[in-house]
User: Fold these one by one.
Assistant:
Number 1:
Amino acid sequence: MTANSQSAVLGVSGYAGMELARILLRHPRLGSTPPIFLGRPDSAAEPLTAVHPHLLDNNGSRALQIEPFSWDLLRDRGVQVLFLATPHEQSRELVPHALERGLRVIDLSGAWRLEHPANRAIYKFSDEGSSVATAIQTQAVYGMPELHRDQIRHALLVANPGCYATSVILALKPLLAAGWVDTTHGIVCDSKSGVSGAGKAPSAKTHFMHAADNLSAYNVFGHRHTGELLEQLELAPDQIVFTPHLLPIPRGILSTIYVWFREPHQPAQVEALYKQFFAESPLVRIFAANHLPQIQYSVRTNYCDIGFHLSADGRRCVIVSCLDNLLKGAAGQAVQNLNLMLGLPEAEGLV
Amino acid sequence: MTANSQSAVLGVSGYAGMELARILLRHPRLGSTPPIFLGRPDSAAEPLTAVHPHLLDNNGSRALQIEPFSWDLLRDRGVQVLFLATPHEQSRELVPHALERGLRVIDLSGAWRLEHPANRAIYKFSDEGSSVATAIQTQAVYGMPELHRDQIRHALLVANPGCYATSVILALKPLLAAGWVDTTHGIVCDSKSGVSGAGKAPSAKTHFMHAADNLSAYNVFGHRHTGELLEQLELAPDQIVFTPHLLPIPRGILSTIYVWFREPHQPAQVEALYKQFFAESPLVRIFAANHLPQIQYSVRTNYCDIGFHLSADGRRCVIVSCLDNLLKGAAGQAVQNLNLMLGLPEAEGLV
Amino acid sequence: MTANSQSAVLGVSGYAGMELARILLRHPRLGSTPPIFLGRPDSAAEPLTAVHPHLLDNNGSRALQIEPFSWDLLRDRGVQVLFLATPHEQSRELVPHALERGLRVIDLSGAWRLEHPANRAIYKFSDEGSSVATAIQTQAVYGMPELHRDQIRHALLVANPGCYATSVILALKPLLAAGWVDTTHGIVCDSKSGVSGAGKAPSAKTHFMHAADNLSAYNVFGHRHTGELLEQLELAPDQIVFTPHLLPIPRGILSTIYVWFREPHQPAQVEALYKQFFAESPLVRIFAANHLPQIQYSVRTNYCDIGFHLSADGRRCVIVSCLDNLLKGAAGQAVQNLNLMLGLPEAEGLV
Amino acid sequence: MTANSQSAVLGVSGYAGMELARILLRHPRLGSTPPIFLGRPDSAAEPLTAVHPHLLDNNGSRALQIEPFSWDLLRDRGVQVLFLATPHEQSRELVPHALERGLRVIDLSGAWRLEHPANRAIYKFSDEGSSVATAIQTQAVYGMPELHRDQIRHALLVANPGCYATSVILALKPLLAAGWVDTTHGIVCDSKSGVSGAGKAPSAKTHFMHAADNLSAYNVFGHRHTGELLEQLELAPDQIVFTPHLLPIPRGILSTIYVWFREPHQPAQVEALYKQFFAESPLVRIFAANHLPQIQYSVRTNYCDIGFHLSADGRRCVIVSCLDNLLKGAAGQAVQNLNLMLGLPEAEGLV
């Protein structure tokens, strides 16, 4: 497979699909073979601009279409990599067929992210426990390049991480890997996300009158991304609390994370630890000690920004992690994974 | 009928109904006989706080309920005035029965606002042209106290004005009534409304991702409130253009209105004309010449604020009119009408 | 002193002063003797509406003025209670003179809230350690009625609590007072506030371009309100972490608070504990177990709303506390204190 | 001069300067010779990221600096094109020196946009009427490529248009040039802009508490951009009214424009006229008849989007024009001008 591999995006009408389309169309190494955009099998073809008017092309020469999905179309057009920006249940159905047909898949849903049945229980997958699903789960690679870069290069199925999970895992992994955190103390992850994280379907929750001028916590002790935290950070359920909140902004996540250290540390030590951990990771930006990222700095970028403050006694640490939930939290990370799968530089088309 | 008359609100779950409940519960002359709140005939009773949690009562002693609608309930509870905060088609159905039962009705929908069939056509009422509907329309009084105060006092059916229409009619009526406006020049009404004007049902239009950080014009040359402007201002269709826009704010309307005068005028003359016209109208506030209202000044009040700027040659006038679309544009004006119908001071419970 | 006591507000031009004016003018027991509004000693008198146009009176008959401050004016007008909505350094200067003149004072600044010098250090008061200041601090009562109701009734100087502190202390006090919290685990308070909390002076932080579509943490391990938490909750500095954030909304605070219990508890027990603690407190609303308040429910009210979720093992508890930072977090609580000082029902004019 | 010409940006700390930096750094033909960023002559050098943290570079290898301005520095570094993102009075001072030194200048301020002294009067330039200023004004080219493409290619001084003016002129020019508009009727331009248009300096107007949840009209009959409309559209002052409004969003302009036609036209004719007029203009997008642009479609792009609705009688036309005030309304248009000056494709680096 080469950089000229043909890709396709199923589910381009949602927010993550929209951002995937935008990135792939401008990708310097993929632009010559634009992705194929796919909608429901029973839908009629329609212009991409009918769904996302701001992706309007001026010259009209690139009349991008959303075509109805079919396996034959993928085969006839020589598709090699399939992005799934589909609901998780649909991803569970499609992935076995895709792999059987020799496609490599980057799945943006939560369908294949979790190894342990207990963590998957919250999704209530209809094929849970089937031999096919179990076999596929074994193959799936959790698509966080900063943790699993080498496996992703050769993966057939990449399970693109959740947006909240990305912001928390990247912020905690260096400290936990170094053994600095006193996990008996309990880690607190207080996360806040813009409304695009709730999806494009109109609902009482996404109504402007509910979301604007408001803030609310939801799914306390019960958010789906919790399982990703437990597995990727190797924590027990009682060692971490994760609370998501709905922010009155279109996009962006800020996670405020509280840990207690086993031993006191200096700010310079913490900064050095982070910088070393992410030395080879072009899409994570570490802020200087006592300087914090804000949501505005990373929105509409593919970066995850991380900063921290240390208490005077050097035992308590507040980490702030920011990213754009549709980019580093979804479509940007998906293309980062694609780059690795195609042997391209990891940040190609993303900075 | 006295100030102790029992009132009922059908459609309390919507935004206008919510504001009606809030105002009526605090009304100094009606608080002792709180209104009856009604939902669909086939709904179960539920606490008002289940629908509008911010109306939570602390002490629990006033356990307000939304009860299923029935004519028998209205009769048994001695209801004399019925507020309809219902869709217009439903108001067309209910009003004949209500009047037959001797109820006085304040209808917040567009069902009975328009006298001329041509102006009503846009609503496509299913009973259009029926003898019952025609007879009722004849009785209906357009519920703008500043224009029809005396008729409202004795009305059986008050058609509460549209929110946009209220902001435009109050701003233009004094100038037109004085004969100052050169209507051959064309009057331009550029109106902007917060999202609550689009109703509580979730839709693509009211999704936070569409409304936030955006502005859009809609229903150009085709908004339902246009007929109210034509009838109340006695204008021909080609004498006025009305363009509504969706603002990224929860509530409030600002209309910017452009007129050409027949003769030049001084700012002091214009200010005096407005102040005289509204001298007896406690819920219209006229700003000093060259001082303009802003949306923030009238939001969460029952006022309509009006200001203007005059060109150096005294021939062109830009009028700015602001109000809260849910209050002076809906529930506040409805209670203003109730006050008149009950012989109370017009602004009772509203300032 | 009686309910007809004359009050005065110094610093009416700020947001807290604005809300004080609004509440006092509508207070059913004080409306007949409207407060006196005061600005800087060297300022000219100006209409209240010049500073807060939305407080416009329609009829013009109540031509409220902001008058230049002087002690003589307070004496001549018979002022008995003085509200200070002034910067803390100014409150340090004014309070000794006010008490000497026999005035009772409700100070909305941070000048007199903290008993221990270590907690006050962050303010760098210029009179720190002076015998006058020390004597006055001894007299000051922390103005949180739910904790110090009886002392407030007779207080000469009430130090009105900080907005963040109110939201955190009310949420934690019942659990700590009952001895349920394992304080060795560390309590985490993640608070988020609307922009009005940053004051009215234009700054880079309050610029729309910085605040909108953004979220940022600030003053980590160093916010002034931390001392109030330590003193009122009787905690050591290493037992609690408090992180404030700036929300892109005009007003409202939501605090998400994380505690570990010594023993497991049932949701019903936690709910009962809260309800009992606040049984006599009309301005605290306890939500049913597993139902959380949102910022919208308490904004523009004088309530503090509290809800919680318990982990499955009953050992970890996430509490969410909401209030309007300008009302229960400032002006509303100040009037609640005034009511107690005047022997009125605590919630008079506030519900 | 070639595409490798060295450029410099003075005033990079403001919003337009920030966007200039962003575009120039990613420009495919200029990226190899990054622009020089300049601050005040008496300022110390500082990293670009100190002022605009979101422009952070990950790898640290491109340690962009803002350097203190001096003519010697420009000479020593071989600067050939100077962008001025400075206040207009400063641009009046600097341009004579720059031209004398052989630099070509793209000035984003209002300093050199207006030919007629009457239209310039509102700026109160301190050098108004001086022979130097008059000579320079004669050389200045109004930098709207869609109208003055050929002159811009060879210009020494390009006066980059105002943001409001761009949105109105592009929308009206085709209709006026075709002679379709009945100018005796009066053209109404009702424009709405996001807060970035008000600049970066904190002020009461740009305070979040004023701008959010609000809408206000300002500078009625007196906005500085009016002169640009008169000159570029060749209209008399009484033929057009322009009213700007402040929107509660960070960026974007929507202008709603009302014209009366001399003769009735069909929608298809209007659409064809626009498409023909802008056939060679890659940064103007014409929407199909009766389809309107919204602010969201053009924000963060370099396009101006134009759509319209026609009344049933074909005599009245409402045109809606949208652009990003910092891009097509400022920095994007400035780079479009640079492209022309350097002989590059007009939209290079902008689509």
Note: The mean pLDDT of chain A is 94.
Number 2:
Amino acid sequence: MTLRLPVFLLALLMFFAPLASADELEAQANELIKRALASSLSYELTESLTTEIGPRLAGSAAEARARAWAVRNFESLGFDKIHIETFDMKGWERGQISIQVGAPYTQPLMGTALGKSVGTPVGGITAPVVRFADYAALLAADDDALTGKIAFIDGGMVRTQDGSGYGAAGLRRRVGAYEAAKRGAIGLLIRSVGTSHHRNPHTGGTSYRKGTPPIPAAALSNPDADQLARLMVLKPDLSIHFTQTSRFIGTVQSGNVIAEIPGSEFPDEVVLIAAHLDSWDNSPGVQDDGVGVGIVMAAAKLIQDFGQPKRTIRVVLFGAEEVGLYGAFEYVRAHQAAGDFDQIMMVTESDFGAGRVWRMDTGISKNDEAKADRIQLVLAPLGVTKGKRTASGGSDVSALTRAGAPAISLVQNGWNYFDLHHTPDDTLDKIDRSDVAQNTAVYAAYTWMVANIEGGFHPPEK
Amino acid sequence: MTLRLPVFLLALLMFFAPLASADELEAQANELIKRALASSLSYELTESLTTEIGPRLAGSAAEARARAWAVRNFESLGFDKIHIETFDMKGWERGQISIQVGAPYTQPLMGTALGKSVGTPVGGITAPVVRFADYAALLAADDDALTGKIAFIDGGMVRTQDGSGYGAAGLRRRVGAYEAAKRGAIGLLIRSVGTSHHRNPHTGGTSYRKGTPPIPAAALSNPDADQLARLMVLKPDLSIHFTQTSRFIGTVQSGNVIAEIPGSEFPDEVVLIAAHLDSWDNSPGVQDDGVGVGIVMAAAKLIQDFGQPKRTIRVVLFGAEEVGLYGAFEYVRAHQAAGDFDQIMMVTESDFGAGRVWRMDTGISKNDEAKADRIQLVLAPLGVTKGKRTASGGSDVSALTRAGAPAISLVQNGWNYFDLHHTPDDTLDKIDRSDVAQNTAVYAAYTWMVANIEGGFHPPEK
């Protein structure tokens, strides 16, 4: 199974190679692809991080151990300028949860706190539930429609290859607590923002706004949301007893781990490839984002073994992504303050699981598009198509893009991503070795070409 | 989707009907099949029980509500002699669990108490873990190999259509605690006895024996067992901190709910069809065994609407199956004491999920085999083949078979059953309406023919 597609791809490469280019850069990239497809380093690093550290909540002792793991592994792989850039943040912990349906249908439901949710008062809250078919239905409710009630925001999520179903469905998680509290609600339950049909509720950050009280918010697994919806047909004024001990725990430390391959000709032009070290606390965070860490570390190591790039390649493993891109914002702040932020010539992040890269989007100057096309043509035999002329580069690095950095997004197949993402089910058995190797090959060839291509890349025109 | 297969089956029936027999009994059975495939009653009853009551642990208030639900529904469906036969039992509750891997790999693992396990001392136990590749490896260990240790029994489970993989793999759950304690262990962890790759650990009863201390026992989900196995390669003397608050809670009440369709000619000859009302507490128990309740209730109702059978049809919904067939043993005891046990002319139970019936096994007198063949030929167009000449009839009713009752097993396809069985994932979304209708059709036709066939059935020769 593992060898099936790589062999097929190698055959394709042999076919395309003469067509692609006689150019040296293309030949080098093709050699890196060949080596990456034959390597299991990215999978091994992913297994090591997610097995040895397990869940890595932002600001936790486990996240600190993950930073030590990264430094140790960067060192043993022979990288340069390995260091940690630490920062303080507000710590949060999930605590315990209990969601009990009231009489006559007394029964427990499975849920999990939304990230950064407050807890309930000690002893919990008991209140009637008001169901909204989706987030839009909540917005249509009157200002005092939920006084003393628990809001239940139901609604589906569309499965897509590019993850676009997540943004729309995610509103109920990201701002549902605010909109419910504004209408008087004392608690919020949402249907998990995910496509899993297993009883593994989906967490992810929620938010509050000034002027409305923060209310405890949790997600029900999809089967539990089904159950609650059925029960509310039987009894529209059903009550729920909801107890949650999630809480903020004061100031804690996180950090970004950085390592480099110095450039031979243009050491101050930086090609930045990234992933994030933290995960939610309910899983070992394999797809999100242990495998991204494995992919970018292994891609850089393959390059290092291959030869020195003209530009500097900087691998950044961000901290505290899940709770709000804290590491990325700190990176921008610190490097703008240090005056070296503009050295970044390109940013790209692997943070969408282990599905194959199938599209390359560009957020660069129009004048550089032909160079991007050269790269895409080399990646085409791996299944990578030409994409949109807009790109954030990925989750964390979108903060760098917003601060002006050029970006290329190597878009992964996310068809199954939200079956696992942010649930307890994000475990090692769910990723495929040959898919991981395809990603590594894409990153190695892409990064090598960006780091060596004549003229480099520039930010998109405003 | 729902209509696809029934339509196909109806077409098949129209084709086979003239071949099958011109006999009146066969024609009646075929009419019942037609009605059952067009009915959604079994699905509706399953949805009602598992939604309105939810989890139904033996001896709990929820199980008592399930008995009231059964009586209410038997009454509204117009059954006869509806009553509950109660009995006392030792109550047990799952409590909370925490399994923490020790340094340097500090992280939580997901598990659940095995049914009827004792808890740990308050504050938990901390001890090195000893891994056994499977149950046989534990049996090969020395008598004092585990003194002061926690045993971890790993091992797979073979996926099969007939569920035969479960029996062998289940030894680690059923008697692992005894064998580990005999060798000095102070706690037991096992890999879930199930085929689920999700983080939903599999519960199910464990047992202790006199002469060895009862030790706390829990199952890890399959991904967590993978994780522990990987960690123990890195550190073979890994420690675990294990806390579990499961406990026995004194005497509680359970009961069997019984309803009948009286026989017109032989009211004292009883055709017994069964399912069980209780479930484990970690799910709404849809496949195990809400759907069995729906199937046998609906099959009997279809018969009642069709016409009075010559023999009495008795529907028995047993209590407290999961914890050790308590309801079934009580049924045998009470009815042997009352002197009417031998009225039972046949027993069959639906307790293997919602997969289609594909085989008919017989545990009857050799002289009655031709009659069983007549029934199987009617069921053949539904996909039911002739099976083995030995049958327990099903889980609970195996207690009745052991006490001498003839049995026919209507064997279901269990290929996916252990993806859900005894896990939190045993929810309504996992069953297929057309599969449930096929089961109902099989039960209706089968039960009608047994209740009317000339000469009836007799126990197998010793």
Note: Chain B touches chain A through 35 residues (CB under 8 Å).
